[in-house]
Specification:
By secondary structure, the protein is of the alpha/beta class. The protein is 33% helix and 21% strand. The protein has helices at 21-29, 46-50, 67-79, 95-100, 120-129, 146-153, 187-196, 212-220, 237-250, and strands spanning 7-10, 32-35, 39-43, 61-64, 89-92, 112-114, 135-140, 158-168, 181-184, 206-210, 227-229. The strands form two sheets. The chain has a six-stranded mixed sheet. The protein has a five-stranded parallel sheet with strand order 2-1-9-10-11, with helices on both faces. Helix 1 (21-29) runs parallel beside helix 9. The longest helix is centred in the last third of the chain and has 14 residues, at 237-250.
Amino acid sequence: MVLSVKKVLVSQPKPETEKSPYFDIAEKYGVKIEFRPFIKVEPVTAKEFRTQRIAILEHTAVIFTAKTAIDHFFRLCEELRVQIPETMKYFCVTESIAVYLQKYTIYRKRKIFFAQSGKMEDLIIPIGKHNKEIYLVPVSDVHKDDLMHLLDEKKIKYNKATMYKTVSNDFTPEEKFDYDMLLFFSPAGISSLLKNFPEFQQNDIKIGCFGSSTAKAVRDAGLRLDIEAPGPEAPSMTAALEKYLKELSKNGKNNC
């Protein structure tokens, strides 16, 4: 007997608008999609940050890999009463992250740079053109060092600063865990799953993930990976999910 996929858990916050592809997929394929992050972000306090002995104003440029990093960088600057000079340059891995900077600073092309492709490797190109800068890289306590390896290869001067923490968003005993599919977006999400459910048995539960590091975490945990994005036919998690459900429907495996 092949079990139908009727209830999907997306380990991210619920989209703020109804325009998300997840809602279209839920209606189109008759599945229930719930949003419940497995991890949450907590701030590093000003006191904790000071123990790192990093002087923000000794840097002339900042590299942002996430909007969360932007929020916590400017939060800490405010708490530490650090006045960021107008000459500070910002390098962002994607255009959307660069645009998000408008929340905190005036957007000027001469001081804000981003990778056109959204890939870390391509962000190194503008960074390499500004190789005299001293870079600050705000990160979570749980992070990948891919960017740091690229900076080291180019002999770029930088300091890594932990400005926020990624912790497990624990499930309560009252919360039901009766999903047919789980979708993950970071290795920390897999760690949280195993922390919350140390006796977790995958059985017929499908697992999908976004990103190679998350896929590796799934396999390292001894779990079966059923859906992986990005890929040639599925550049996003929603595209991968729809492709999978479409195949199930075609084979008559997702009918009541």
